[in-house]
Amino acid sequence: MNLGTFLAALIPLVGIGALAFLIRWQTQEGEGGVDRSPSRRARAWAISFMAILLVGSVLQLVGLYSGDPGTLALFSLAATVAGSAALQRDRIGRKIDGFLGSGLRRGAILLVRDLVIVLLVSAIAFYAHEISWNDSISWMDATSRLWEQGMITLAMLMMYFLFQHRSWGCNFLLVALFLIGVAEYYVIVLKGSAIMPGDLFALGTAAAVSGGLNFSFGPSVLLAAAITCLGLGVLAFVSPVASAESGSTVGAAAKAGSDAEDAAAKGRIARRVLALVLNLVLAAACCMGTVACTQGAHGYIAGNKTKFWEPVKAYRANGFLTSFVSIAYEMPIRKPEGYSTEAAEQIQSTYASKAEADVASWKKYQAANAQFGTKQPAIVCIMNETFADISVLGNFGYTGPAFYNSMDDCLMRGKLYTSVLGGGTCNSEFEFLTGNSMAYVGTGKYPYNLYSMDKVETLASQLKDLGYSTTAIHPNLASNWKRDKVYQQFGFDQFIDINGFQNAPCFHSGVTDAATYDKVLDILKNNDGPQFIFDVTMQNHTGYDQFNIPQELLTNYSIPNQSDYDNAQLNEYLTCIQQSDKDLQYLIGELKKLDRPVILLFFGDHQPSISQWENDRITPAENPDSLDHIMKTYQTTYIVWANYDVAENSQTSENRATSVNYLSAILAQQAGIPLTDYQKANLGMSQTMPAISAIGAMDADGHYYETTDTTSPLASQISDLENINYLNFGSRV
Prior knowledge:
single chain, alpha/beta, Alkaline Phosphatase, subunit A, 9-stranded mixed β-sheet, 3-stranded antiparallel β-sheet, transmembrane, cell membrane
């Protein structure tokens, strides 16, 4: 800890001292013996702000705050002012009581005052929610902003009425909005993405993989905290004191036993019940208004055809709540327009016939299939965490993983288009193992967490039916993405999770690739029967500012006009890929030594989150919003390789770009595995639409199109595949 950090940590302590002095000063009696001491509630407000200031001091002291001391001072001032104002709530309340007296006039004026406060805090809450993560708040879409403000305002009014004119619910909502904004800040910084509705079903997974991430924060978070403190300070004045009349009249009622007093007491009870009911009705009305705002926001976003290819940009342009609820409304898998099972089966059959009509490819497949019948090879699939060749982004001196790119004896290899970037590994798993595309599931969803997969056919269940033993491997918690349940539904016989890697060597973010490959090799050596092994690695997992790789191993690339910090992240990532490349070379060498046939599929699940800004900086002349530019970040790479001579295959690394949803069909075709009608249809579809993802589709000439573009040359294929996907997935879950 340096001296500057220590001195900055003292700034919030000054605010704590000031509030402590005010509490002590107001506790003393004033002139004439008048008691001006604050109530316990007012002291609780002030102590709450003192606790907030203490948290700020501790965060600065431990180095989690990485911003300037000026913002820390602003935060401290805001919390101190808010706490000081809260201490005045009783004094101001007594003056208001003295001025207004009692009766309906007093109640009406206090209600108007409270509503003005709630409306003011609703405006404050918008900034407390957005400003920590949204650096484009001044350029937000005006209509989207109005919808979001409407949601916040009506929700704040709902809380006010629900809690019977108390500020508790409003306080909770304001703090919740602030914390959601902070969570969004961290998701953007650590993953390069935004919080999606599906993330709510994956909180356990997010927590499990957060080890090693850097949770420091910048000035924007403290600024949002300062705004939140001011909002809380204003809310302290909502109904600060009870009516002086109520206490005296209740006391009088207790002393008097007359019928008149009893009637008055009953009248007060009736008025309170009426007020309770009226407030609940108003709260319900505000709740319905909030829901109506979410529907309006969704309609506006859908009408604008807002694209969530790059969710951070979309969220910043439209606001968090507007974007989040719009995606949430799209969570159900919608049945294609005019869908029928019979028509979908006919479409599937048509495309399956196209695969069989491709004479050259089908002849090769038939030879491999005949060979498969006599020599069932082990099928090993490695989905390598964040493995990609990011030289596709542009020229910055990097030429890709050396050994991987030198492999010239593959059955097939090429670019692999993905639906996720920086995270969402389970969606790449889903597309690969089921053959379904996330283009028809939707943005912000994670099928593993949302649907029962009991009736979904997968590559694992297909091979299991052919007599294969099926094993899944992932050196992390089995509960992540609900893999422990999903893998069983997919047809895996066993799942080797982190418990199978006790004392295994680690690199960067987890167990090394090589350690998982040793587990694969053990299975192949100790079981002569046909094996299907699906290995999901871990070592390359984000973040890339852990600075835990020895200096002598680090690569030394840089991108012009990029900070040293961002270049350090780039090199940490590229060093991980370099290590994965070496481990792959080790695995290939070991597989060559085995006296049994093995087919290896190796592919990356997605690019790292840093690719988004690297892409913009490497090619600044490109339109950052164009599909051509964005699709560079939604692609990895794959190889299909064999340690034996596959019939009718030259094994000269035929190059073929594809997408993850087609990959299992390509693997089955190359290995000679008996193809399902769905796999044949995917192969037939890939002839004219070689790749499709949640981001876009690619034609045979390499041109990209939006999947929602009904005028594109691929519109018919996109529609047909939607029907086929619904037949094989949507209709079964």
